[in-house]
Amino acid sequence: MKFIQILATLATFVAAVASSPVIAQEGESVESQTAKQSALEMRAEQVVTLINGELAPESVFTDAFLTAVPPSQLATIFQQLTSQFGAALSVENLDPAEGIRASLDIQLERAMARGGIAIDAADDDRISELVFQTFDHVDDSPEKIESDLSSLNGKVSAWFGPLDGGAPAIALNEADQMPLGSTFKLYVLASLAREIAQGTRAWDDQVSLNTHSFPSGMMQDWPTGAPVTLHTLASLMISISDNTATDQLIAVLGRDTVLQTVIDSGHSAPTLNTPFLTTRELFLLKGGPTDRLNAYSAANIDTRAQILSSIEDVKVSGDQIQTSFANGPSALDVEWFANASDLANLFRFMRETGDPAAFDIMAINPSMPAATRTRWAYAGYKGGSEPGVLNLTWFLTDQEGRDHAVVLSWSNGEAHLDQTALELIAQRILTHSQ
């Protein structure tokens, strides 16, 4: 299991082979081009057929593309597209129409898919790159979005609205406490931002790395004692969801300090996060003996604290941890929790108490296509996942200066989740529900 931030943009998929020789051959003639239709036009029209599942990917894409995105994965992606947006109808725009690379718009029944395409003239003009970055919906509405969210298999909670008390555009099970995955790291950031605003700490304060967790991230491979600033720790924690950076910050701030932020920000059920877990503790609980995990799940707060103290020095390999999460969801009640209102309250709390640089850190990876990002004056993001858990959370400011939040949570203790399905719905909210 990895607590990962969703580092990709909300593009449905990107499969580009940057090292392909086609990039150096833009001036070459296209052998298969006819007087009526270029090779690029032919391949673009085949994308319509591909999306509808009527053409085998092996006959259209380069081997390098299919190595990056196997045919089975492509079939799943295309099925997701047609399920949400309807069948592909036509190529609406291909610019330029000749050459080897162009912007590409595909009209689907309920959306316009916008992206780009490239072909490899040295490989029978096969498609070497295909990217869909945005989907402009036709006749979409908050009611349709809520309906599509409700149809997801499992428990779903969603909220989108202004933070100044205005009515939300979307509110679905918004009071339900949901597991967060790595989105809990926002509470760590808020704790640090408050202490910096109070003058207790500074972003350039340097600490020695003395705690290590497991991926996601990179700092798990850094040497013990490595000097690192609080700003670096916070940036890695949020932008690439670095678990070691997170645990180091919790060690610096103190577990109780972070829990106090949970309480002070207006969390409606803070005992669900007591004691406040580190990522390493959660890995060791879920990757350790089943009887210990079950005991922790059933224990009161004091007993949980005792169990955590007993695993501080446990040595477990990364391979053991990875294997323990390979079989699907595990003990989703052992997690970090918040509902949509709690996270909206956290953003208000950060505005009131936190140093503004925290918002710059949240914006390092806004997790949305560039075209969508331009619709907002500010976009900050943190997401989280483990098998059976997915959360996508944005803090946004519109062009008039009004703050908003988007919170999407999905859990299912019996099955893996279709991350792309939730990302597609999120994009509809980010693009069309202002």
What report would you give on this structure?
- It contains 16 helices and 14 strands.
- It has 434 residues and is an alpha+beta fold.
- The strands form four sheets. The protein has a five-stranded antiparallel beta sheet with strand order 1-5-4-3-2.
- Strand 2 and strand 3 (101-108) form a beta hairpin.
- Helix 4 runs antiparallel to helix 16 (419-432), helix 6 packs across helix 7 (243-253) and helix 9 packs across helix 12.
- It is globular.
- 44% of the residues are buried.
- The model is unreliable at 1-35 (pLDDT under 50).
Rg, alpha carbons: 23 Å
Record the strand order, biggest sheet.
1-5-4-3-2
Rounded mean pLDDT is 89
Distance between the termini: 35 Å
What is the helix content? Answer: 25-40%
DSSP summary: helix tally: 16
Report the portion of residues in β strands.
Answer: 15-25%
- Sheet/helix structural class: alpha+beta
SSE ordering: EHHHEEEEHEEEHEEHHHHHHHEHHHEEEH
Biggest pleated-sheet summary: 5 strands, antiparallel
- Residue stretches low in confidence (pLDDT < 50, at least 5 long) are 1-35
- Per DSSP E runs of 2 or more residues, the count of β-strands stands at 14
Assign an overall shape. Answer: globular
